[in-house]
Input
Amino acid sequence: MSVPEVEAQAVPESAFLLDVRENDEWQAGHAPTAVHIPLGELQARVEEVPKDTPVYVVCRVGGRSANAAAWLNHVGWDAINVGGGMQSWSFAGRPMVSESGQAPFVA
Output
C-alpha cells in the first residue's frame, strides 16, 4: 500500500501535525504546533486525531510515520507522511522547540 508523502517544506503552516516519536525524541526538539502521540500509543489514542482535516505524520526520518499514516488511512483518516521526518524538518529550517530548555535538535 502506498502512503501519500510530502517533504517537510511542503507541510502547510496551519496543518495538523502528528509527531509519533518517543518521548525523549519529542523532548529534544519538535515542531511548535505538533501533537505528540508516540507510535505505540496511537491505536489507543486515535480519537485525539481529528478526522475532518488532513493529518501530517512525522517521526525522526520517515519510517515510523509512514507506518502510522498507512494505518490511519486504513481506518478512515486522511493521513500524509512527512518524508525525511524531523531531520528534513530541521534541515529545511522549519521552526522547532525543545522541552529541555536546550537548543532543539533531532535525536
